[in-house]
Amino acid sequence: MTERLAATPSGIATAARILQDGGLVAFGTETVYGLGGDATQPSAVARIFEAKNRPRFNPLISHFASAEAAFTQVQANPLAQKLAEKFWPGPLTLVLPRAPGSTVSDLAADGLSSLAVRVPRGEAVLALLEEVGRPVAAPSANRSGRISPSDASHVLEELSGRIDAVLDTGPCAVGLESTVLDLTNPDRPCLLRPGGVSVEALEAVCGALARPETEADAAPLSPGRMLSHYAPSLPVRLNATSVGPQEGLLAFGPTPPTGAAVTWNLSPTGNLEEAASRLFSGLRFLDSQQPTFELTGLAVQPIPAHGLGLAIQDRLHRAAAPRPAEPDAP
Ligand code: TXA
Ligand code: MG
């Protein structure tokens, strides 16, 4: 049974106790819902992989209530301090060398000498992390390869019966995952995954960001970058300027093409932040309309490549990628 907990002091206290006891609790952050487990308990971390059906162990982000708490687990450099001051709590994940005394289990860190840390935004999640008092590992609370959840009901669709509880903190404000920045070499900050903090905002602080040389280089480092991720069950066609009668349309802006069976407009005013916050719910909604309209696929209008548009494009590119021959999730 998966319990749905309200984001009240008593719901938060129950969630904290479950986590301390090695159980799994999904909770909302400003980005997406995370599937949380105590990062210091290898058995809790193993349960996360099992619940998600992850094909292999991958390094997880450790979540903290404050930068001070996060920086007990990693060796922060001045650039990390500066970014933490500017963007935390918020949708930025920093990859840093693990501190010698780090209590995060090797399983959560995938045996790497680096660790990804983040302080999420949101009153309830911060209260929860404070109360747990330990690093909480939390990948997105979906089955591996599927659309990330931006609402408690999405989590239950994906993971009901496989986790102990979900702390219902309402819909996620940003709606797509955090930006992952590798600062293990502070002279060469490297963008591992575009996300909720735009590249422009980061470059204003860090200067130009390096990118992993190729997709293959990045994949082992950042599995959120694996192709065929965030996938709805229908095929996805990108940069569509016209649409067929059996297609669902993921639209953007005031003048979407007409003729789709069903349309979800990410932002009628063309606002990229609104579009990011409505992306995963839109993919889920259109996918759910398949039986009603006998949809054969989803068409996606072009999305501009600036601000959060880059992260939106990244997720859509993965949603449209060729699927593995044998999907790992039913
Ligand atoms: O917004 C988010 O980041 C959400 C919420 C729940 O916080 N979490 C999330 O976790 O997206 P996950 O596990 O789906 O993605 C974590 C990303 C992966 O791409 C992973 O490879 C990368 O962070 N990562 C974690 N540890 C790393 C490390 N030591 N070095 C490089 N990349 C790392
Ligand atoms: Mg994910």
TrEMBL record:
Catalyzed reaction equations: L-threonine + hydrogencarbonate + ATP = L-threonylcarbamoyladenylate + diphosphate + H2O
The species this protein was found in: Acetobacter cerevisiae
Keyword field: ATP-binding, Cytoplasm, Nucleotide-binding, Nucleotidyltransferase, Transferase, tRNA processing
Binding-site list for L-threonine: 31, 138, 178
Taxonomic placement: Bacteria, Pseudomonadati, Pseudomonadota, Alphaproteobacteria, Acetobacterales
Enzyme Commission number, as recorded: 2.7.7.87
Subcellular location, principal: cytoplasm
Positions annotated to bind ATP: 54, 58, 63, 118, 140, 148, 193, 230
Pfam families per UniProt: Sua5_C (PF03481), Sua5_yciO_yrdC (PF01300)
Single Gene Ontology MF annotation: ATP binding
Family designation: Belongs to the SUA5 family.
Protein name: Threonylcarbamoyl-AMP synthase
Origin: domain of life: Bacteria
PROSITE patterns linked: YRDC
GO aspect biological process, one term: tRNA processing
Subcellular location: Cytoplasm
GO cellular component: cytoplasm
Enzyme class (EC, first level): transferase
